[in-house]
């Protein structure tokens, strides 16, 4: 497995045991995905980066015994939890431990067979998203849809500024949320994969928070020094010289985001990419 994928697997393996207990937007987002998927009995669903089954499990209930649901994820611990939940509810779901960007060798996935392909809260983790989207498009039936999400610029602003600094300095990250930071870019991604992206949209905000940002240096340290599952994502900042230079850039960039009271109004909002195969 590539080092980058190993880091991602480590992050989500660490997060998996408590993922279903986390507070935040994920449960509401999963419910919205099910609404946007508009499932009915007999449909075939491919849930990429399925995690602990937040979408996969209810999708199988919606398509019923005559339908098919496959979940793919790089985290083996997440899949263990998803399988246990499916077994508990006697749901026939195929779970596969694999890189979601490379599905050619995955049994039961090839061919134009899926009505819906989803990738919730994970598309920014792909190293080659354009190639992945082209590959996913090949798996859709005519009329089938792929549904993805990416964070808006106004979501988790401090993280967005940190990402911008990393990109400028060539500091490697396991994700890239800046590549598709506008609806136009998302639609172009889908169009280049041969899909109609005109159904794409910006969803409603899941939350709005006023963040005190009058001490950007402390904010930078807080982001970089976080412990737990997110720690592995910022290894590129560990060198003292790199960290010092990155901190200066972060502070300068954040000033342009702060209002007169030293605060930032943040959203939890997504650009929803919906690509239909015509």
Describe this protein's structure.
The protein has a seven-stranded mixed β-sheet with strand order 3-2-1-4-5-9-6, sandwiched between helices. Strands 7-8 form a two-stranded antiparallel sheet. The longest helix is centred in the N-terminal third of the chain and has 17 residues, at 3-19. Helix 1 (3-19) packs parallel to helix 4 and helix 6 (157-169) packs across helix 9 (240-255). The protein is built from nine helices and nine strands. It is an alpha/beta fold. The relative contact order is 0.14. The chain has a domain at 3-152 and 174-205 and 269-276: Vaccinia Virus protein VP39 (Rossmann fold), CATH 3.40.50.150.
Overall outline: globular
If you consult CATH, what is the topology of the domain at 3-152 and 174-205 and 269-276?
Rossmann fold
Tell me the series of helices and strands, N- to C-terminal. Answer: HHEHEHEEHEHHEEHHEE
Annotated CATH architecture of the domain at 3-152 and 174-205 and 269-276 = 3-Layer(aba) Sandwich
Q: What fraction strand?
A: 15-25%
Quote the distance from N terminus to C terminus. Answer: 35 Å
Characterize the largest beta sheet: strand count, sense, and whether it forms a barrel.
7 strands, mixed
CATH superfamily of the domain at 3-152 and 174-205 and 269-276: Vaccinia Virus protein VP39
Strand order across the largest sheet = 3-2-1-4-5-9-6
Kindly state the percentage of residues in helix: 25-40%
In CATH's first tier, which class of the domain at 3-152 and 174-205 and 269-276 applies? Alpha Beta
Radius of gyration equals 19 Å
Report the uncertain regions: none
Determine the structural class based on helices, strands and strand pairing: alpha/beta
Number of contiguous helices: 9
């Amino acid at each position: 497995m590539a080092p980058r994928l190993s880091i991602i697997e480590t992050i989500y393996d660490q997060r998996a045991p408590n993922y279903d207990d986390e507070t935040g937007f994920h449960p509401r987002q999963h419910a919205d995905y099910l609404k946007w998927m508009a499932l009915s009995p007999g449909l075939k669903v491919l849930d990429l980066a399925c995690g602990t089954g937040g979408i996969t499990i209810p999708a199988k209930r919606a398509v019923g015994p005559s339908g098919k649901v496959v979940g793919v994820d790089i985290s083996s611990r997440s899949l263990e939890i998803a399988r246990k939940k499916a077994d508990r509810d006697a749901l026939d779901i195929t779970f596969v431990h694999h890189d979601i960007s490379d599905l050619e060798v995955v049994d039961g996935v090839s061919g134009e067979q899926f009505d819906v392909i989803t990738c919730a809260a994970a598309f920014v983790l792909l190293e080659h998203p354009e190639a992945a989207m082209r590959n996913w498009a090949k798996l859709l039936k005519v009329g089938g849809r792929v549904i993805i999400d990416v964070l808006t610029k106004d979501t988790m602003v401090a993280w967005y500024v940190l990402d911008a600094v990393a990109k400028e300095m060539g500091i490697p990250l396991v994700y890239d949320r800046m590549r598709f930071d506008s609806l136009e870019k998302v639609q172009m991604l889908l169009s280049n994969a041969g899909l109609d992206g005109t159904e794409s949209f910006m969803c409603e905000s899941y939350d709005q928070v006023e963040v005190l940002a009058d001490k950007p240096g402390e904010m930078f340290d807080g982001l970089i020094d976080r412990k737990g599952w997110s720690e592995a994502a910022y290894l590129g900042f560990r060198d003292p010289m790199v960290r010092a230079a990155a901190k200066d850039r972060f502070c300068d960039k954040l000033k342009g985001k702060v209002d007169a009271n030293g605060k930032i109004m943040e959203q939890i909002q997504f650009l929803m990419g919906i690509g239909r195969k015509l």
